[in-house]
Structure formats: C-alpha cells, structure tokens
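re: ur question from earlier - yeah i can do the single chain one, its not a big deal. heres the input i used so u can compare w yours
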Amino acid sequence: MPEQQLLEIACAIGAGARIVIMDEPTASLTRREQDRLFGLVRALRDAGVGIVYISHRLEEVFALADRVTVLRDGASTGTQAVGEMDEAGLIRRMVGREVDHLYPPSEASPGRTRLEVRGLACAESGVRPVNLSVQAGEVFGLAGLVGAGRTELARTLFGLTPADGGEVLIDGVLTRLQSPREAMAAGVAYVPEDRRRHGVVLELPVAQNVTLAAHRRYFPNGWLRSRVERMAADHFIRILGIKASGADASVGSLSGGNQQKVSLARWLATEPKILILDEPTQGVDVGAKSEIHRLVRRFAAEGMAVILISSDLPEILGMSDRIGVMREGALVAILPVGATAASVMAAAFGKTDDRGES
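and the output i got, formated as tokens:
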C-alpha cells in the first residue's frame, strides 16, 4: 500500500500539472516518507503550482496549508487562514461538537498472556525470528518504517503467509497457524490495511458483510437465515455506532469511517481472543477516528489482546500500552508506555541497541 501510494503521487507530479489535488496522500506513509512528501509539496508551491490538499490528519493541515476549508455532511462550514484557527476549533468544525479524548486512556489492566510468539519467521514475506507477547486487555502498538515488516508479521500470524519457523502459543497452548481457517479457529482476527479491497465487499449489504467470516457460527447447518443475519447486523450497527440506513444498506454507500466499522464488525462476529488491526483509522475523519479509538479501548477492556499497526505515530503513542518497533523484518525494540516519538524513530532507524523483550 505505501509503495502504491508513492507511485500514485509520482504519476500526478510527473504529469507536469499546474494544479495538483492530493487526497489523503500520507494515509499509508510513515514519518520519513511524510517529511519527503512535505518537502516536495512546498517545492511545488514555491514553483507556482496550486495544491488542493485533502487530509484528516490535522498536523498536516497546520504544517502545509495557507487556507483551510472544512466540509461536513457535503457542505462547507467556512474557509479561514490557517493562522486564524487552532486544532480544537478545526475539530469542532469537522465534527460539529467537542471531541474530548482523541486517544482515550486505557480502561483495563493487562491480564494473563494471551499471545506468545517464539522465534516466528517467514522467509516468503521476509519476517525474521520474532519474539513477543501480548496480554489480555493490552493494546500492543506495532511501529516501523514502510517495508519494515509490520503487515507481513500480521499476515504470518493470521496464516496468510504461513510461518516456516518458530512457535505461537495462545492462552499458553501451542497453536498451529498455517492458514486463516486455523487462525480463526484459534481466536485470531485480522482487519486488513486496505479495507476497500480486503476488508469489506462494497457491493454487498451491511448484513452480509457482518456475517461473512462467521458463517459457521450463524449458519451451523449450512442454511442461510436472513433473520439471524439481520439480527447480527443490527447488533453491530448498534454497538459500533455504524451510520447506515439499515442492515440492507450497501457498504459501498457508506463513509470510509463506517466502512471501517463494518470491517471491524465482520471480525468481531467471530468472537476473537486476539484482534490484529492494520491501519484501522487510515483515511477516516477525526470524529470516526475518535470513535474507533474508543472501541479499541473497549475491546481491550473486554479481555481481547489487541495488536495495533499504524503509520500514524501520534496514534501509536496515544493508544499503545507497549510499542514494538520493526526494522527489516525483525522486531528490534519493545518500548514501554510513555515512550517518545524520538525513541520510536531511533529504533526504526536502527539507532538503538535495544533488542526488545521476549
């Protein structure tokens, strides 16, 4: 995804356009790639190119924009010079209300070890032997530069690219995870990075998306039951706050944030013990981001072990109880709560000898 995004940006700039529209250009990029892009945007501006920069990341607005227009529900709420507004005012315009906690505090103390990984490796995806543990009630953040191996590790844990070395224990029991079916049976769920391609089926209604990964649970005899499916969808629409006209609404008609919630519902329907979230707030507005963060804390409080993969460093710092940093397919550091952006980036660039904890 990050490489595809950089290629799209290169294509737009290479066309020699005098006006460039960038729609969430940094959604999959890490801080290093973002800084390079920011330098390029400023150079284009200085060369006389007009840039329309669309972003849900507020720090980018204040770093790059001269003026900002806020859209809500398809209508403009006004245009102002960036120097005339602050972050709190911008958020109010975006969501129409106050957002108290973008990164809500932890609601639970970590419990027993839910997931333990010993020397897990996958030559096919470039994952080198990884040792880590995640406890029930914990949000374990996974950071690193583009290509560091975060998504590859998630795919290995979910059996999409089966491990060729190491061991995985779930609740202390040695577990085989050589396919998504085995991972799901063991209580592992994976919400993928590219929700429109892999997270939801846009042409199907909310109800069918919700039960897609849990047919055996909802339809044990192999017969589809529309009433059961609708009840399941209504349940998740209610608890996740999905804004849709109903269970029959096409997922393609929903906003990005609500599509992401449907993707979450699909995997929550499997009743997982371990929830892997790959870029869960990518491309969603600040209101939806706040709601998703609240839900992540709620899942952890209910006893799940959550692995949160994100290229948004403030999100990693604000949501994680501990942070694992990957570099070149290896887990090079595990940092405690309260870690700084500098310590995360130092580990990502290989400027630390901390090899983490097993």
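The chain has two domains: 2-95, 113-348. not sure if urs matches, ping me
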